[in-house]
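Lab notebook: predicted structure, single chain.

Context: the supervisor wants predicted structures on file for every construct in the current expression panel, including those that have not yet been purified. This is the next one on the list. No modifications to the sequence; it matches the entry in the shared construct table.
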Amino acid sequence: MRVRADRAARPDQPAISHHLKILVDAGIFSRGKRGVRAGYALRPAVLDALAAILAGTAPPDVPGR
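Prediction complete. Output recorded below exactly as produced.
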């Protein structure tokens, strides 16, 4: 059986869904249903916290500081 190189490294849909669920449960992404499909978005507060950590201006109680 031959596997095309462009598909060899592509994760399967169940693996992607599993990891997105973990990110939603952690509060990093939000999830919205659109018919039978789900849409995911990065939560703005997470981006703000990450920017503050990288800039060195995060308050002391932010994990990763």
